[in-house]
Fold this protein.
Amino acid sequence: SVAAGSIVVPYGHVIGNEKWRGSEIAQRLQGKIRLIFEDGLGLVDFHLSNRTCILFISEADLVAGDEFKRRLVRFRNASSLRGIVIVERSQISDQYFLAVQKLVVLELGMVLLPVANQGEASQLITQLVSFYVREQSKDHNSNPFIRKQCSQLAEPSVFRTVQQIPGVGKTKALLLLQRFGSIHGLCNASVKELELVVGQTAAPQIYSF
């Protein structure tokens, strides 16, 4: 099952799909993050936190045809987890990339991050994990990473405005602006899209705001 809440990820760990054991990604992640392998993750390749997971589409998946598209659509329909899609964009798979981008970003509304190879994918996963670990840590105010992210992401006035929404603090404001890009994007988001970012409690408040 890919339903939210079916997997609880220990703080600072990543749960990886058993099929990646021994792969280049896994080998490069070992020593950088604490990686636990589990069977039964279904469509998901790596769980970064209780709400965020990664679906990895390799060069081979892209070349092999449409199976990966069915997998993404099944995930999107079945899951309330926030899925980040990492795509291996090489010289061979480049011709398929625009179609994948259209499907993932425009049709499914998910985050798409291209990488050149599995080594780059492992670096990206490491960076994402360190972000989620910091985000989960309680002391947001003294966290320079979150402040730096905010300043790059949006004008301080926009960031403050989003924080005025009931139930939205610094972290949720950051995630919302990361996901929707602007106040305009946020206003046009559906409750379902908002739920993927901030959960079921805060989403209706943001929507009605």
In short: The longest helix spans residues 118-136. The beta strands are 13-17, 34-38, 46-47, 52-57, 82-88, 111-115.
